[in-house]
Amino acid sequence: MTQEFDPIVAGAREAFAKAGTPAELENAKAQYVGKAGRITELMKGLAALSVEEKKTRGAAINQAKQAIEAALAERRQALADAELESQLQAEALDVSLPGRVREPGGLHPVSLTMERIEQIFASMGFDVADGPEIESDWHSFTSLNNPPNHPARSMQDTFYVDIDGDDGIPYNLRPHTSPMQVRYTHQHIKRYADAVQRGEPMPEIRVICPGRTYRVDSDATHSPMFHQCEGLWLGENVSFKDLKVVFTDFCRTFFESDDLALRFRPSFFPFTEPSAEIDIQFQSGPLAGRWLEVAGSGQVHPQVVRNMGLDPEKHIGFAFGMGPDRLTMLRYGVSDLRLFFDGDVRFLRQFR
Ligand code: DAH
């Protein structure tokens, strides 16, 4: 066997070894076994030889070619292995690294209060109802015995919404949850009428309506968006005494304290007569001794009962409206209402 082509094979091996990338390797390959490569040229040269010479020289060239192709395949594999290895290195996971923790969320302190209020009143047989935040002028005021141009309307700095209702009377962002008294009763009026038709006594109306309310107001104790929870209890014989019992019970459960005094201070609201402001007083703790206003209340005005579609001779009872934001501040000792709505997680995470 001739050694004539060994240097070519050795040259190819060296060139392949020098190639550091697949592209460089393909270039090196072209110089040997490509169309104009060394081996290809040698093959072409066979044409001029005799049959005998063709045989021996052809076999030798072929052997060289096979050796080059084997070297090429080997180098290709080596480059592919190296590529894979460096990719694995780059994508390596350090399993000892601590993971990114997603902290569990929590309810907003005012939501916690809302839930608490709902639970306590539900346990006293109250329904819980939701109402619209964009409310008609009639529901917000007129139905509550507070007609247009009545001076009592100035008790609330209302946001009016720039769309007119069908009757040309503006809508507003409800300044209180009181419109829900009439709305809720209207929603259930058929149920009441059906009961009466069947000869049953009319069911009592016992409901709370928590939700967002709006006023043009902003300082440490007022926010343009705030919360209220309305309460309504109407029956044949529901009195102020019941209001006192229900609200006292509620406050003591809410604040988890029997050491709590309540005061009903005479006041005015167009939709109740008589009306009272409800104040509470803690007997111990940082707020001890101070009277703190937590709700407005009163016996539902006969005109409001009429606007509900009911007979004020037969449906007597009370309503109240309290401020869950205020209750939250008192319960947790927060002095600035704005903290609730700033969205600062350092503040909010304390209630988790
Ligand atoms: N709606 C009143 C307010 O926002 C609070 C209120 C007072 C509600 C007396 C009542 C009530 O239901 O009877 O100031």
Automatic annotation (TrEMBL):
It comes from Ramlibacter montanisoli. This is Phenylalanine--tRNA ligase alpha subunit. GO terms for biological process: phenylalanyl-tRNA aminoacylation. Keywords: Aminoacyl-tRNA synthetase, ATP-binding, Cytoplasm, Ligase, Magnesium, Metal-binding, Nucleotide-binding, Protein biosynthesis. Binds 2 magnesium ions per tetramer. The gene is pheS. Residues 117-350 form the Aminoacyl-transfer RNA synthetases class-II family profile domain. It catalyses: tRNA(Phe) + L-phenylalanine + ATP = L-phenylalanyl-tRNA(Phe) + AMP + diphosphate + H(+). Tetramer of two alpha and two beta subunits. One of its GO terms (molecular function) is magnesium ion binding. Mg(2+) binds at residue 273. Transmembrane segments: none annotated. GO terms for cellular component: cytoplasm.
